[in-house]
Amino acid sequence: MTADLLAAPRSPRSATQRRRGNLEKWGWIYMRASGVLLIVLIFGHLFVNLMVGEGIRGIDFAFVAGKFATPFWQWWDVAMLWLALIHGTNGMRTIVNDYVANETTRKVLVYGLWASAAFLILLGTLVVFTFDPCLGLSSTSADWLQELCA
């Protein structure tokens, strides 16, 4: 019975198997490379937010507005967002591929994962690059915000 399910070790692979194998190889390489980059990005993010300046007490709206006013920190956070979401989605795709036997269900789940990741990447990128602390500024806003937006 198992002989019918497993291909012979030296049998040629079909085009679909070759494509998926190549996708799996690049997914594996991406997971390793993005993992290393994420370690640098996340620990840099944590160091700047928690160790520099006032530490955790200094994190407020003004701190975030100041960081998002600098292109360096915008790109740092966007790179962290993109890498983390794609890394996590690729990991979930691997789990779905391993545990979901039904091909239709597997495809629906994988497409759903990638669609939600794409939506979150788009939304997060828009938030980072269009962040405006002066949007909706009222006369009752804090003094520092009034000065920042003047």
From TrEMBL:
Residue ranges of the TM segments: 29-52, 72-96, 108-131
Pfam families cross-referenced by the UniProt entry: Sdh_cyt
Keywords per UniProt: Heme, Iron, Membrane, Metal-binding, Transmembrane, Transmembrane helix
Places the protein is found: Membrane
Protein name per UniProt: Succinate dehydrogenase hydrophobic membrane anchor subunit
